[in-house]
Amino acid sequence: MEKVVGLFGYPVGHSLSSIFQNAGFRKLGLDFTYILFSVKPKKLKKAVEGIKVLNIVGMNITIPHKEKVMPHLDKISPEAKKIGAVNTIFNKSGKLIGYNTDVNGFLTSLREDLKFNPKGKSVFLLGAGGVAYAITYALITKGVKKITIVNKPRWMAETLIRHFRKLSKRCEFNLVDFSRRNHRRLIEDSDILINATSVGMNPGDASLIKEGLLYPGLLVFDVVYNQETALLKTARKKGLKAIGGLNMLIHQGAVSFEIWSGEKAPIKTMRKAAENALKMGG
Ligand SMILES: NC(=O)c1ccc[n+]([C@@H]2O[C@H](COP(=O)([O-])OP(=O)(O)OC[C@H]3O[C@@H](n4cnc5c(N)ncnc54)[C@H](OP(=O)(O)O)[C@@H]3O)[C@@H](O)[C@H]2O)c1
Fold it and tell me: What's the whole-number mean pLDDT along residues 137-161?
C-alpha cells in the first residue's frame, strides 16, 4: 500500500515540496506519495490526530502551525525544542516525533553555496519570524560572534533575542530599529547579510537594503526561494557572492525525506524538479 507523507499549512497552495519530494520518491522507486493538506488553525489538533489514525508516515509543518503543533506531539527533538518550532513530524510506530530540519538546510546551503563558516563572524539578520529562529539557532551552534537583528515590529526581534540569550551567553545580540537598517556602519561591520523576511516573494518587492551599502566582500543569503529577489539581483550585479533560498529548501526537505524513508535523498533530482516547477511558474 502507498505510504503517505505531506504538508500541513494554511495556506499550502504555493508549496514546492510536493513536487520535489514526489520526484525524489519516484527516482528511488519508493511507494511514497506527498500530499498538501490545507489545515485551518482551529483544526490542527484533529489533523495531527489524523496522522496516527490514518497511519500517515510523516508530515512537514509550515506557517502558521510550526509552534502550535508542538503540544500535540509525543516527543520533540532537542534541537526543535530549543528553536521552539517543528517543521517535520515522523510517525514512529504510532508515536509522533517532531524535528526541525530548517537548521540543517540552512547550514548546508551556507557551507556549500557560500563556503561560509559562522564561527567568530558577525551577521546582519533581517526578520524575526519562524525561519529567523531556525537561522539564529544554527548560527549560535556554529559559534557566531555577533548577530545584528532588524525587524519591523521591534517586539518580535526583542522576543527572539530574549529566547536565544538563554541559549547562548557568548553570542552578542544587537537590536536595531527597522528605520535604522540602512546605516552604513552596521552592514560594514557584518560579514554576511541574511534576509529572513518574506520580502522578495512577490514580484516587484523592493530590497529592504540600499544598493550602495552592499560593499565588496559582503556575502548575501536570501531565504526567499520562488524567484531572484531584488536584493539578490543587486548583490550579484555588484559581483557579490549571493544565494537564494532554494538550496536551503531542498536540503531541509532532504532531511525530512531521509527521516521518513530511511533512504538517502536524491538531491539532484529533487533540485531539478523544483527548478523546473519554478521555471514553469511554480
Ligand atoms: N528557503 C527555505 O528553506 C525557507 C524555509 C522557511 C521559510 N522560508 C521563507 O522565509 C520567509 C519567511 O518565512 P517565515 O516562516 O519566517 O515567515 P513568518 O514567520 O511569517 O515571518 C515573516 C518575516 O518577514 C517579515 N516581513 C514580512 N513582510 C515584511 C515587510 N513588508 N517589511 C519588512 N518585514 C516584513 C515579518 O515581519 P513583520 O512582522 O514586519 O511582517 C517577519 O519577520 C518566507 O518567504 C518563506 O517562504 C524559506
Answer: 97
